[in-house]
Amino acid sequence: MIFISLLILIVAIAIPSIRINLSPNLFVRLTAIIFIYAAGLSFNSLYIQSIESGLGIYSGLFHVTITSQIIDIFIFIIGALILTAWPIFYNHLLKNSYKNNSNFYLKSDKLSYENNPATEYSLIVIFSSLGSSLLLSSSDFISMYLSLELQSFGVYILATLYRDSESATAAGLKYFLLGGLSSCVILLGIALIYSYSGITNFESLYSLSSVLHVFTFHEPASLGISLGIILILLGLLFKIAAAPLHNWAPDVYDNSPTIVTIWLTIMPKISIIFLLFEIINGLNFSTSLLVLDNIKILPVFYLKFANYNIVEIKHLLLLSALLSLIIGTVVGLSQIRIKRLLAYSTISHVGFILIALAINSASSIEALYFYIIQYSLTNLNVFLILLAFGYVINKKNLINNSLINSDIQFISQLKGQFFHNPILSLSLTICLFSMAGVPPLIGFFSKYYVLYSAIDNQYYLMGIVAILTSVISASYYIKIIRVLHTEETKTKTNTTESNELVLNNLHSFLISSLTLGLLLFLIKPTIILNSVQLLSILLFDKI
User: Fold this and answer.
1) How far apart are CA 89 and CA 79, in angstroms?
2) Are 45 and 67 in contact (CB under 8 A)?
3) By three-state DSSP, how is residue 59 classified?
4) Which terminus has fewer CB within 10 Å in the chain: N or C?
């Protein structure tokens, strides 16, 4: 469905008559409808009886399961919600701005414009979403790498969507160069695995690696396969901005337009995290199948050198989680730019996700699913609110200059907004409290489940560090809330002017719905909790 829709949109954009006569915002709305319809098709596929054991397609390159389809539904819905944030400005605002912007022109009293980023945004978003969907179902290193690159190249282009913005161009170039480096590391790991084993299929590799470790674990093949797997995981950790491979994230998130930053912080992470889980779960499951008398089984995820265990994947993830928690919290305290602060906040949240991923038990995977759901919804709402503040605060720039000057850059720009936009300020406050883990908001329960799984599996140090960093990180969320509510702006705004530019109905409805969902989760928690519990049972009932 996504691929067919992509071809249709490409043809529609290529035809000049359709491109000129249709508003670019229409392409954005059509893309959102496509995502919702694709989510419905993924939901209908759950009724296929044979999908319970998984369906191999394209000669085993992809493996469609219930889990992959459910995550597809979630990705498509989140993608549709992100697309609703694209601004729809009124004609009188655009008529005032076209004189100062050569990208706009009037034709027959109907305002239309070429070279508007909305058209390209919707098209590239479908490319990236198609890569994310294929990545979730990948069961071969070839399909994994191609899907990962399809997703990544879409994100690279999104970062440079505003070609006239120097900061966006610099962010996209940096993201492309460093992302290409991580792709090279992943490709090197795949080459090592193929050179030592001659296979690229996940299931075959799990079985072969386990046998090698049992019978011939002194052979170089075992070392080569383990080193290849670790290189792949390092490349994937780089792409989700896990410390210490996080340096690119604050600069790219800060310099990219906010409408693009929403996509960067949510969509690529979901698919890559579940790919990491698929690899780690497969490795653990394959080694648990081998039970031999008087033989100590070495797991496939050991990297050995001179009879010493140097690296274990679980320990690698725990180390990355520890550094992500500490760096994301400590460095975030000194930030004065709002998107850089949220970038370090994202790194801290990745630390919680990696803890649940490394433990790899039924309770931790349940916590992993729940945490990703609440992280995506909360992060989406925060950036939607920042976009709304940008439209309201910078409406003069929108009218007099261009459409790309509406981003909130500094925390100080939110001074005293509670006294001028109380509803938006309260919504942002609720989201920030949820991200800090304040009860009874949904963010508290997500952190609670991760910490519970860590303590239950005797990872006491990680639990203590996670609690301390969560408490410390609350200070920079409170800093934003303090600026919102206690510091009034010196210049008085004109009330009549503030009503000139309002949010579209869908944007407002989405902010209010997400805010109420975060606030009232405690009243009806069973919908999400039962869903993640069922997903966890589906994954662990065979072990």
Assistant:
1) 21
2) no
3) coil
4) C
Sign for the pseudo-dihedral over CA of 512, 518, 519, 523: positive
Helix, strand or coil, per DSSP, at residue 488: coil
Q: Which of 131-140, 289-298, 502-511 has the lowest average pLDDT?
A: 289-298
Token digits for 380? 């989406």
* Amino acid identity for residue 61 in this structure: L
Alpha helices in 394-521 (DSSP H): 395-400, 422-436, 442-456, 460-486, 495-498, 505-519
Q: Is 163 exposed, middle or buried (0-12, 13-18, 19+ CB in 10 A)?
A: exposed
Query: In sequence order, which ranges of 240-305 are alpha helices (DSSP H)?
Result: 248-255, 258-288
Q: How far is CA 317 from CA 171, 195, 277, 359, in A?
A: 27, 26, 11, 9
Q: How many CB atoms lie within 10 A of CB 293?
A: 4
Residue 255, pLDDT above cutoff 60 = yes
Q: Are 321 and 359 in contact (CB under 8 A)?
A: no
Rounded CA gap, 222 and 435, in Å?
Answer: 42
DSSP secondary structure letter of residue 270 = H
Residue written as tokens 């960093």?
469
Tokens 């309260």, residue located: 426
DSSP assigned state of 386: H
pTM for the predicted model, two decimal places? 0.87
User: According to the model, what pLDDT value does residue 540 have?
Assistant: 66
- Spatial contact of 52 and 70, defined as CB atoms under 8 Å apart: no
- pLDDT at residue 487, as a whole number: 62
Radius of gyration for the alpha carbons in the chain, expressed in angstroms and rounded: 24
User: In the chain, how many domains are there?
Assistant: 1
Both structure tokens of 368: 């992993």
Residue type at position 506: L
- By C-alpha distance, which of 398, 379, 391 is closest to 417? 391
CB 355 within 8 A of CB 462: yes
In the block, tokens 């997500």 appear at: 446
pLDDT digits (tens, 9 = 90+) for 297-312: 334 444 444 444 445 6
Q: Which two tokens stand for residue 537?
A: 């049972």
* Per-residue model confidence as pLDDT tens digits over 321-345: 999 999 999 999 988 999 999 999 9
